[in-house]
Automatic annotation (TrEMBL):
GO MF annotation: an example: protein-L-isoaspartate (D-aspartate) O-methyltransferase activity
Protein's UniProt name: Protein-L-isoaspartate O-methyltransferase
GO biological process: methylation
Signal peptide: none
GO cellular component term of the entry, any: cytoplasm
SUPFAM superfamilies: S-adenosyl-L-methionine-dependent methyltransferases (SSF53335)
Gene3D superfamilies xrefs: Vaccinia Virus protein VP39
UniProt keywords, alphabetically: Methyltransferase, Transferase
Cell wall biogenesis/degradation recorded as keyword: no
Keyword Iron: no
Coiled coil, from the record: none
Protein family: Belongs to the methyltransferase superfamily. L-isoaspartyl/D-aspartyl protein methyltransferase family.
């Protein structure tokens, strides 16, 4: 659709000039058709707004999704853990960038739909699991990159223990009832370098796996 091409071009221009995104991530954004991931009837899938998803969830704007992916600095050899699959759009970007992605979602409905979308994009290097993700996923650890689509008052120890040496983790840190900061945690041996990136509003991760949806 011509409108989608214009929206994509505007997004690429903005993230390149304002967020300094370049290289392989820009190629991934161009390669992944965002319309496949947004609800039917959306006029501009690349617009500056969130979109509703089934199960009472939402997906971030295209720019926010790209900024989160950019913060991770994923390289081709990296193994990635994602908490909160949602529509699968960020999952698809990460799968284009890294060697393998393990993505956790508490709603089977969302996980199954995202799996189908990634298959339509010819992406097969992703493991989809129905889990709440509040303690990460130790079974496949350690990870080179971790992203959490939810907020914490402070980073749980379980995630720290699942990070490889040199790993990065991106999550929203702050009270769940207000504005948080997206923070990049960079593990360097026994030390952590914390870099606040941009404000965001995300809900704390919900407890348990959804039994009905």
């Amino acid at each position: 659709m011509s409108g989608d091409r214009e929206g994509l071009a505007a997004l690429l221009m903005r993230v390149r000039s304002e967020d300094f995104v370049a290289g392989r991530l820009m190629e991934a954004v161009e390669a992944i058709p965002r319309r496949l991931f947004v609800p039917d009837g959306v006029a501009d899938p690349y617009g500056e707004h969130t979109f509703p998803l089934p199960c009472g969830q939402t997906m971030p704007s295209a720019r926010t999704a790209v900024r989160i992916a950019a913060a991770l600095r994923v390289q081709p050899e990296h193994r990635v853990l994602e908490i909160g699959t949602g529509s699968g759009y960020v999952t698809a970007l990460l799968a284009r960038l890294g060697v393998h992605v393990v993505t956790l979602e508490r709603y089977r409905t969302l996980s199954s739909a995202a799996n189908e979308r990634l298959r339509a994009c010819s992406l097969s290097n992703v493991t989809f699991l129905q889990e709440d993700g509040r303690a990460g996923y130790a079974e496949a650890a350690p990870y080179d990159r971790i992203v959490v689509h939810g907020s914490f008052d402070e980073l749980p120890k379980a995630f720290v223990e699942q990070m490889a040496s040199g790993a990065m983790l991106v999550a929203a840190i702050g009270a769940g009832d207000g504005v948080q900061q997206i923070v990049r945690h960079h593990r360097q041996g026994s030390r952590f370098e914390l870099t606040p990136l941009f404000p965001i509003r995300l809900q704390p991760l919900e407890i348990g796996k959804a039994s009905l949806l």
